[in-house]
Amino acid sequence: MAVLPIRITGNPVLHTPAASVTEFDDALRTLVADMFETMDEAPGVGLAAPQVGVPLRVFVYGWEDDDGVESRGVAVNPELWISPPPVGPADEDDESEGCLSIPGERYPLRRAELTILTAVDLDGVPFEIRAEGWLARIFQHEFDHLDGILYADRLEASHAKAAAKAIRRNGWGVDGLEWMPGVDDLDD
Q1: Of 120, 131, 114, which Cα lies nearest the Cα of 69?
Q2: What is the pLDDT of residues 161-187, one digit of tens each?
Q3: Could you give the C-alpha distances from 113 to 100, 116, 143, in angstroms and in order?
Q4: For the purposes of burial, counting CB atoms within 10 Å of the CB of 111, is it exposed (0-12), middle (13-18) or buried (19 or more)?
Q5: Rg of the chain on CA atoms, in Å
Q6: Which of 44, 81, 83, 169 could form a disulfide with 116 if both were Cys (CB 3.0 to 4.6 A apart)?
Q7: Alpha-carbon distance 48 to 54, whole Å?
Q8: Are strands 96-99 and 102-108 parallel, antiparallel or unpaired?
């Protein structure tokens, strides 16, 4: 297993819909193992294949709730159904999220409170997960990556403006930028 560099916003692979996985082989297993290691080292709670430069419809997730219940897995060729998001502005304390491809930044974003994820595992076996709360948010965030959407693309106007300013300030938004978890410290 290896930690992979994470692409920063501006890289075309992050802004283009990913292709379906057609080969369930050792290369896919290695990619997923590397994605888990990269996510854990970053640290993050989810990572989509485009974030490590691979334009495939795969994401991994790993999160522990307040009761110590761990949710960890991989979704290959996922589909996502979401409930209607609540009406009103996002709460800056409870609904802020970040992204490993926009490192060190966090902005409030209103998301659906309930999702149903259907996908297949590394053996091509279908599964379904009904998620609420933070796990539902993780699924929506990672699924968006597979469609070439970053969370900053969904922000309310005032927060979108602040995100765009942060991206310019950091020199991001251009092709070729990446960071290496465990090596680069981008939280300064």
Answers
A1: 131
A2: 999 999 999 999 999 999 999 898 765
A3: 22, 11, 15
A4: buried
A5: 16
A6: 81
A7: 9
A8: antiparallel
| H-helix or E-strand spanning residue 108 | strand 102-108
> What number is the average pLDDT over the span 66-86?
95
Distance CA 188, CA 185 (A): 7
Q: Tell me the mean pLDDT in the region 46-74.
A: 96
142 flagged as catalytic = yes
Please report where in the chains the tokens 């106007």 appear, as a residue. 157
Q: Length of the chain in residues, anyone?
A: 188
* Coil, strand or helix at 54: coil
Q: What is the pTM of this model?
A: 0.95
pLDDT for 188 equals 43
Bridging pattern class, strands 58-64 and 46-48:
antiparallel
Q: How far apart are CA 101 and CA 179, in angstroms?
A: 9
Residue tagged active-site, from 37, 128, 142, 178: 142
Considering only CA atoms, which of 106, 83, 78, 124 is closest in space to residue 166?
106
Maximum C-alpha span of the chain: 46
| Cis-peptide, bond into residue 84, ω within 30° of zero | no
